[in-house]
Amino acid sequence: xxxxxxxxxxxxxxxxxxxxxxxxxxxxxxxxxxxxxxxxxxxxxxxxxxxxxxxxxxxxxxxxxxxxxxxxxxxxxxxxxxxxxxxxxxxxxxxxxxxxxxxxxxxxxxxxxxxxxxxxxxxxxxxxxxxxxxxxxxxxxxxxxxxxxxxxxxxxxxxxxxxxxxxxxxxxxxxxxxxxxxxxxxxxxxxxxxxxxxxxxxx
Length: 203
Known about the structure:
Shape: elongated
Order of helices and strands: HHHEEHHHHH
Radius of gyration: 23 Å
Largest sheet: 2 strands, antiparallel
């Protein structure tokens, strides 16, 4: 393959894939499959078209989530979905621990929320000090699908708890505190992943 042909493949994929790891993997597949077709006497453009058709489903641009207008390739969405499930699972496990601690002694739950909030602040401060994240990126992170989902869940949880308890001071209700543990856990993990420069699809 000529240099300009390789560049054309790179430009095509860069428009559809953000993650460097996925980009390199898909790029290798494209080059190998195009080269195999060209060995059989097919010209580059025809071979490139055939490979694009073969990958059409995986590279189709789809909405990131129900809570986002951003579109990404289907193959990248699958990868992000795996990361999001891991974040949610970790948050649920820590939330269950918080519920157990609350059952043993409600004061433990308050301490846990304070520790998580402090950890969130430290990770955010680290990102700012070492320029891992700009203020603009942090503002964009506020509209991340997982955080938007938690905001909507929070409104639902707080509303139900208020309807049942009639307590206007939502912080005093342990169920609300337990939900905040879950929400802060998600936030901390997203910030930590951003520290590692991992793709978390900032809106």
